[in-house]
Amino acid sequence: MKIIIAGAYAIGSHLAKLLSRNNQDIVLIDDDEQRLENISSDYDILTMHASPTSLAALKNAGAADANLYIAVTPDENLNMNSCVMAKAIGAKKTVAKVNNYEFVEPEMAKFYEKLGIDSLIYPENLAAYDIVNGLKMSWVRQRWDVHGGALVMLGIKLRETCEILDRPLKELCKPDSPYYIVAIRRDGDTIIPGGNDVLKMYDLVYFMVTKQYIPYVRKIVGKEHYVDVKNVMIMGGGDTAVRALKNMPEYMNVKLMEHDVERCDYINDQIDDQRVMVINGDGRDLQLLNEEGIHTTQAFVALTSNAETNILACLTAKRMGVRKTVAAVENLDYVNMAVSLDIGTIINKKAIAASHIYQMMLDAEVNNVRFLMTANADVAEFTAHPESKVTKKRVFELGLPNGATIGGLVRNGEGHLVSGGTQIEAGDIVVVFCYNVRMEKLEKFFR
């Protein structure tokens, strides 16, 4: 697949990292030579120093034969214009990043498609969706619904209350067990576990489970005492916060703290909801936090533009008794530090956007894919085709690449966990957790 990326900024750089693992034919265009040098030294991609709105540059980059053209510079007008040009000279599919929610309204999709823009990405909206989804389960670090929730993957931090510590997985994950452990994140390393591996305190463990057994998993990991989120505090009133407010469940009450008076007025104009209170103040002010009821708050979400501020604010909220904390960490270099400090859920809207675009680049066999930043791994849904390799043998006989494990499957709309003796059938949607595995190696099993 030939892919052209316009913009060597955070999203473009992260995309290049994801794609370089899969031997894709990638050209990265940017008008800043230094940004290109920083990326080309790390990843196996071709770079071009040129403007993405130069017709000559697009032709030289091979846009006429491109399967996918992606424009992810900070300038939404440049992104849209370059997509229109790339489509006009032959690019099969175009994607543009925008900074305004109005552009991604569903009724506008056909209009932009006529112009030559097949898909628009608004990172703030994608991040807001992840934040709201995370708040629905206070005891979970990450949640990923597979095929509309037929299967659910939960990332859970284990504490001393966990009932299944220090026992080999072969005792825990039996063929009739209601959950399956697909990965463990421990001391900065990701482990695809075997039967002799054990769970340790402070592990971040990824469980695959069907919806009806989520309460059971909650019990065995010792999280039943975590109170469900009803009261939320948000620090920072940027676009991500506004999108999150618009999508909050009806049973949640939110207090948003923003230091800029004009921004407070703007948010009040945008949000007509009695459950939302906008406060002009600094979310780092301990007196203000106490006055506004931090001790009766179940979740604290820090969404300022400063990663250090968000990390420190979440640490403070935890010390004041808040169980669930969410921090926006836009500097990717700080993500591992935030994880090691036990912040809670980490949100990086650029990585989320890159992951969303990433799934567009994979073959038709892949229905959906999610890059899990904290585990540095992918979770992908594959459809098993008739006569494909996965339908010929039981799971334990397939010889999957090291670093890959099948966590479950969806058959006729119903989720099922997978054991070594499971026989995959044509039409099954199979969920694969993969760490340091090229996606193309897995695709061969499903064709």
Automatic annotation (TrEMBL):
Gene3D superfamilies per the UniProt record, alphabetical: NAD(P)-binding Rossmann-like Domain, Regulator of K+ conductance, C-terminal domain
- Show the PROSITE patterns listed in the entry: RCK_C, RCK_N
Under InterPro entries, the record lists: K_uptake_TrkA, NAD(P)-bd_dom_sf, RCK_C, RCK_C_sf, RCK_N, Trk_Ktr_HKT_K-transport
Q: Domain of life, per the record?
A: Bacteria
Any one Gene Ontology molecular-function term assigned to this protein's record? potassium ion transmembrane transporter activity
Q: Can you give the residue ranges of the RCK C-terminal domain?
A: 141-223, 366-447
Keywords, alphabetical:
Ion transport, NAD, Potassium, Potassium transport, Transport
Q: Name one Pfam family in it.
A: TrkA_N
Q: Which GO terms describe its cellular component?
A: plasma membrane
Domain (RCK N-terminal) spans 1-121, 229-352
Q: What name has this protein been given in UniProt?
A: Trk system potassium uptake protein TrkA
Q: What is the lineage of its organism?
A: Bacteria, Pseudomonadati, Bacteroidota, Bacteroidia, Bacteroidales
